[in-house]
Structures are given as C-alpha cells and as structure tokens.
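Appendix C. Worked example: Dolichyl-diphosphooligosaccharide-protein glycosyltransferase subunit OST5
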Amino acid sequence: MSSPLLDVWDAASNSPYQPTVGKGSQFTVGFLLLVTAFLLGGVFGLNRSFINLPILGIPASLAFGFGAVYMICAVGVYV
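Step 2, the predicted output written as structure tokens:
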C-alpha cells in the first residue's frame, strides 16, 4: 500500500532542487542589490514626490530587502 505523500517524496528525489542564484554568487548578487538600493534610495530621498515613488522608492525597497537576505545567506547566517 502506497501513500500519496510517499509518492511525492520519491518523485522529488529524482529531481533535486537547483537554486536560481548559486551559493558562490550570493555575495555578488547581494552586494549589487544593496548598492542599487542605496543609489535609488538616495536619489528618491533627494527628490521625493508621488511620481517618484513607483519609479524609485518601491524598487529601492525591494532591492534592499532581497539584497539583505542574499548578504545574510552569503555570510553564513541562515534565516
């Protein structure tokens, strides 16, 4: 008698997970995202307006969030 969960487990063992960004390049990607976030955030801070929010503010916050997670993982602190 086979359970559906066991079938899923066996099927998953045939195709291991491959991350989009490998362990060797996490530091570079994280650093570039953080630099981009600080540049976009600086430009947004100099000319804040409602029009610049979706153009500069939102991409800056997303780049900072993802860059921080990549840098944390790159230096060995797992979240």
